[in-house]
Specification:
The chain is α+β, with helices and mostly antiparallel strands. The chain is built from nine helices and 17 strands. It has two domains: 109 residues, Rieske [2Fe-2S] iron-sulphur domain (Rieske Iron-sulfur Protein, 3-layer Sandwich), CATH 2.102.10.10; 258 residues, Naphthalene 1,2-dioxygenase Alpha Subunit, Chain A, domain 1. The strands form three sheets. A seven-stranded antiparallel beta sheet has the order 1-10-9-4-3-2-5. The N terminus is likely disordered.
Length: 419
């Protein structure tokens, strides 16, 4: 447990200036990184994957969060459950591959064997008084939000997950994530602190000059603007966009597709935000021609022109749900200077590669965008290490959600430290 008495983190938390980027130690200090892993990633709901990662009983996935390694497995009752990847004999790591299929969970070291419920069912040479029931795998809290998997490493997880699920379930359910498959997964190590990765995601101030692919399907007015800087023509276009969003929301909601913004990024322990927004061009998907990337639509959708539903969670995820495919992102801290960004593209489980979809076309917008973002995050990490760095002001028109992320983060530290 972090010793907070006299800890310099407490002074940094107290001194954080709202509306400005964080002080440099928040981005570069190994000690603060360790505190982040304990306070943020050790006590909050962390997005780690999707139910299609483990589609059948016996399918297992390993996710590493800092020093913790977690087994996520679908059991014989078709439930998705999670355990610490640590044998109860002498602590050996049990599963070593990211994805595998098992009948039982067997430790290679001394063949201690656990069933898919985590119970120890076989342990040779332990004597007549040995009680197997006391040595099952240690469970990890796991919740599925319409197929999105979240774990919490704390003994007592935040209790407000149900509130998020109640709100978000109707938004996500029509996309029927449980009946999708992972068409492609990428893993990219960004050379920056995890908070810089998340800050970069929480704004599109940088998009116009850095994301030529992403800005094709996105409307320029969808991510904030400064009316005082616009001429009459630009203000008219912004007004038309606002009217279009309202009209689309009315139509989507009338058709049973929740769409309007819900924003709780800074005022809840389990912070989140969602909104469905129209897409430019054909309005179907995040593709270069703005048309659906898969011929087989998700759920019971009859039209591809449903824009894109965005869903963000604190501290480490963002997701885009379209009529034909879903893209999910998780940011996993590696150390103070490096973050793993894991991206999954999901299509209907019956879609056939090369017939219904092409991998390159499905992934090209976000593959390019991820690489571009990684470079930008690297620039910020380099700058944060400079003696010349000092916190700079966020744009109130386009970086308001970055401020909400930082406010949530500092607030969670303050709560844990008792400040």
């Amino acid at each position: 447990m972090l010793d907070v008495v006299g800890h310099p983190l407490a002074a940094l938390v107290r001194g954080r200036r709202p509306g400005y980027s964080l002080d440099a130690p928040f981005y570069v200090s190994p000690e603060i990184f360790a505190a982040d892993m304990e306070i943020i990633f050790g006590h909050h709901w962390i997005y780690v994957g999707v139910e299609p990662d483990v589609p059948e009983p016996g399918d297992a996935m390993v996710v590493d969060i800092g020093k913790d390694s977690i087994i996520i497995v679908r059991d014989d009752e078709n439930r998705v459950v999670a355990f610490h990847n640590v044998c109860r004999h002498r602590g050996a790591r049990i599963l070593h591959n990211e994805k595998t299929t098992v009948g039982n969970i067997v430790c290679r070291y001394h063949s201690w064997t656990y069933d898919l419920s985590g119970a120890l069912i076989h342990a040779e040479h332990m004597g007549p008084g040995f009680d197997r029931s006391c040595h099952g795998l240690k469970p990890v809290h796991l919740r599925s939000l319409e197929g999105l998997l979240f774990i919490c490493l704390a003994d007592e997880p935040p209790a407000d997950f149900d509130d998020m699920a109640r709100v978000m379930g109707p938004y996500i359910a029509p996309h029927d994530l449980r009946n999708t498959k992972i068409a492609f997964q990428s893993e990219l190590i960004e050379k920056g602190n995890w908070k810089l990765v998340m800050e970069n995601n929480r704004e599109c101030y940088h998009c116009a000059g850095n994301h030529p692919e992403l800005t094709i399907p996105l409307f320029a007015y969808g991510f904030g603007f400064a009316p005082e800087d616009m001429d009459e023509h630009e203000r008219a276009n912004a007004h038309r966009y606002s009217c279009m969003v309202q009209e689309r929301h009315d139509g989507w909601e009338a058709a049973g597709l929740p769409s309007r913004e819900v924003e709780h990024l800074a005022d809840r322990v389990t912070g989140f935000r969602t909104e469905r927004l129209p897409l430019d061009g054909e309005g179907e998907a995040h593709t270069l021609d703005t048309r659906a990337a898969s011929k087989k639509l998700l759920g019971s959708f009859k039209t591809a022109k449903l824009g894109a539903l965005s869903f963000w969670t604190q501290p480490n995820s963002w997701h885009h749900f379209m009529s034909d495919h879903i893209v999910t992102f998780s940011a996993i801290p590696l150390d103070a200077d490096n973050t793993l960004v894991r991206t999954k593209w999901l299509v209907h489980k019956d879609a056939v590669e090369g017939v219904d979809y092409d991998i390159d076309r499905l992934t090209e917008v976000w593959q390019a965008t991820n690489v571009q973002d990684a470079e930008l995050v690297g620039f910020c990490q380099q700058g944060a290490r400079s003696p010349a760095y000092e916190p700079g002001p966020y744009s109130p028109n386009t970086e308001m959600l970055v401020e909400k992320f930082c406010s949530w983060y500092v607030g969670r530290l303050a709560d844990h430290l008792g400040l």
